[in-house]
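Exercise: predict the fold of this chain.
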Amino acid sequence: MPIVHSAQVWWFPANFLPMTTTIATLLEGALEGRRLLEHPFYRRWEAGELKDGELKGYAEQYRYFEANLPVFLAELAARLPEGAAQTAVADNLRDEVASPSHLDLFESFAAAFGATDAAISPAMSALVDEYRAVLNEGDVAAIAGLLAYEAQGAAIADSKADGLRRHYGADQVATKFWDVHGTIEADHATWTMDGLASLNGDAQVISLGARRIADAWWNFLTEREELAAA
């Protein structure tokens, strides 16, 4: 069942249990002012207003996150006890690394816009560090942080793919990474929500874990805006 807030769509299980209802409320609070499709960078992407080189630079940095995500998921899955949370994370990891891996699909997007090797930027370095930080804080914080992006992922991916096709001359090879995520991220959000609910975690830990990752993603997009304006 989609829940719509302006341009953003989140996907949650159709039949909420009390704990998932609580998590949905906590997530809404954590994402207040941090819904990524409301960021000026993504609004410009959607409108076809990105300048030459912006997609190249974005791809060069996003690659670091995409390479780190399977590591994050593998470490989290390995330490979770058997149950819904471990299954959710393991299934997410399976999708990431199944051939062709999501990193391989991402490289097709990156190549289409001339991405080369580049040093990690301060904001992307901070984003990767935040995923490590919530992992170190415990299972509940880690899964809440994962949910902060996964709950937005399908709408973000669909928006990116549509913008790439309409405004930036991308073919189906270049958009496949985003097209795939537009299809599977709804499942990832549902799995992650159910897994987090099964842990019956502290509300403050859930809120803070989600907000840390939401802030880090927002700051990464703000860095893209600042570089474009320089």
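Check your answer against the key: The beta strands are 2-5, 8-11.
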